[in-house]
Amino acid sequence: MRVTARYEYGDIDVSRLLDDADDDRSSAVFVRTIVLAERRWPATTDLDELRAIHRGLFEGVFNDAGRLRTRDTTREDTEDRARAKNPEAFFPANLIETGALNIATELADKRNLRNLDRGDFIRQLAHIYDELGYLHPFKGGNAMTLRIFASRLAHDAGWDLDWGPVDRELYRTAKHDAYRGQTTGFERMFDLMVRPANPTRVFLIAGWDQGPAH
């Protein structure tokens, strides 16, 4: 992506980058991760935060940016054909708000994962990441939204997530393991990523090859 290369070489005029990215969806989303990281959003650790992130990333890209999906969805790209057409592969659309409230309550009970040692933090984050992945609140853009939410949550809990070691195949494998009820794939993934937070750092999430997840 030309816009990505320009940013990496020091062109940090976000307004100009946004203008130049208008005709390319991937570039537009990449630049908006920069805007989100710099301007932040209300860190409410609930569905409102997920919607704010989604809106910030995809407004002008998706027609439904920030809006919850209204239909049940399946997992077409899984290798498990029994699950590919199964509407229960993700949370029922009419219960998304209830499911999100349960996850937010769980996080609040766990003090938003603060004051945990590294091993406990990784296990708890993998569990929450799996729960939110199953919730799948939006029609599209869930993975990118979730990665940014998890990075913000981790940073405020005293840890930074370095997505550099994570490629698409590692991420896909961890997700497929989670569909089968095993979060160990996410635990191994986060073990590669978690490091003590730099309190002066403004985290930027772009991921593999500086591109959006999907």
Overview of this protein structure:
This protein has 214 residues and is mainly α. The chain has a single domain, classed as Fic-like fold (Orthogonal Bundle), CATH 1.10.3290.10. It is built from ten helices and two strands; from the N terminus they run ααααααααβααβ. It has helices at 2-8, 14-21, 25-39, 47-58, 81-84, 96-109, 118-135, 142-156, 168-179, 184-193, and strands at residues 159-161, 194-196. A two-stranded antiparallel ribbon has the order 1-2. α3 crosses α4 (47-58). The radius of gyration is 17 Å and the shape is globular. The protein starts with a helix and ends in an 18-residue tail after the last strand.
Structural class: mainly alpha
Distance between the termini: 15 Å
Name of the CATH homologous superfamily: Fido-like domain
Mass-distribution shape: globular
E-strand count: 2
User: Mean pLDDT, nearest integer?
Assistant: 80
Major sheet description: 2 strands, antiparallel
Gyration radius over CA = 17 Å
Instruction: Trace the largest sheet across and list its strands.
Output: 1-2
**Number of DSSP helices?**
10
As a percent range, the share of strand residues is: under 5%
Q: Mind telling me which CATH architecture this is?
A: Orthogonal Bundle
Structurally, how many domains make up the residues?
A: 1
- CATH classification, class level: Mainly Alpha
Low-confidence stretches: 3-21, 77-81, 206-214
Helix content: 40-55%
Protein name: protein adenylyltransferase
Organism: Bifidobacterium pullorum subsp. gallinarum
Pfam families: Fic
GO molecular function: AMPylase activity; ATP binding
